[in-house]
Amino acid sequence: xxxxxxxxxxxxxxxxxxxxxxxxxxxxxxxxxxxxxxxxxxxxxxxxxxxxxxxxxxxxxxxxxxxxxxxxxxxxxxxxxxxxxxxxxxxxxxxxxxxxxxxxxxxxxxxxxxxxxxxxxxxxxxxxxxxxxxxxxxxxxxxxxxxxxxxxxxxxxxxxxxxxxxxxxxxxxxxxxxxxxxxxxxxxxxxxxxxxxxxxxxxxxxxxxxxxxxxxxxxxxxxxxxxxxxxxxxxxxxxxxxxxxxxxxxxxxxxxxxxxxxxxxxxxxxxxxxxxxxxxxxxxxxxxxxxxxxxxxxxxxxxxxxxxxxxxxxxxxxxxxxxxxxxxxxxxxxxxxxxxxxxxxxxxxxxxxxxxxxxxxxxxxxxxxxxxxxxxxxxxxxxxxxxxxxxxxxxxxxxxxxxxxxxxxxxxxxx
Length: 415
Prior knowledge:
Elements: H1 31-45, H2 49-55, H3 60-68, H4 87-100, H5 102-121, H6 124-136, E1 158-161, E2 165-172, E3 183-189, E4 195-201, E5 207-210, E6 225-234, E7 238-239, H7 251-280, H8 297-329, H9 333-365, H10 377-386, H11 392-405
Antiparallel strand pairs: 1-2, 2-6, 3-4, 4-7, 5-6
Domain Acyl-CoA dehydrogenase/oxidase N-terminal: 40-136
Domain Acyl-CoA dehydrogenase C-terminal: 258-390
Keywords: Oxidoreductase
């Protein structure tokens, strides 16, 4: 049986870079404007979401609108001209966008995480340089993970010093956002084994991005292969990422919390689809004694349960956002650990509700909801794929060690 019908017929071909924005991106004024813009964009993105998934259409225009809206710079500090909004607002934005199209929500994740890392580890001159790019509407992609290593944090990609620049060599996969990015941060090790972000121009000679992402879910994150063959990166674009994890900082929690928001967005979309289908298409069960599917007491109970669990996940997500705000402002072992713990709690609930809601959709909506014309299985496929980013079973371990033995979570991008 063939599960995935993703088209990667030309996967061996390099994809040319996209043009940089011709005009500066909008600068968000406050949290309310950010939420309003997210809702407006989501209303447009949802219109073509099913078709983009079905036919694996690249969201080129959608990403341009998203990044030019100002939502990709909302965590740029005020001192550099950015909005510096709360992380509670940032994750609500990602949730809203992800409810419309979770692939588009995920593509922004690494960009926002890199902006946070630059704030943590870069000197003032580098911050000014790179934050200016973000405020222009420049999109940062990602070339972090590698396919064949034993563990996610094991990297073979390295760089060598060449005077005013470094030369990077390696191969990456799971590179969400790289294909349609303007700059590609590459995680590469120096001679001491320390991890840096070598931020290469998307069109740099030797940087090849291949569209070979064949997963059954999150199809248009375009998370394929990046080949790095003697790619030159100016030292001004070499960010000491390792400094974000050699002492307590919020960097790991920030990368994590955005993943949580993608999953709550998927859950919201699935519940909304369930309600709509039950109200407009589903038939009452033969033994129920009701004329309408929405009067079925078991369906009513199930929708109430799913909604309650989603609201619990969303509440923890907001709480985690505020905890991260505090950890960014006052990075101590205590504030960072608290942000990590609340984010881990939210990650557990968001994973569980995303999978439950996307699965329950079909049980409550009935057999006709499985017809290909509705493409409702995309929500389950997206939830199942995205929640594999890091195992929730290890989140329980983090919580148990913290609450039982007072052990703080490890410092890395998965915690």
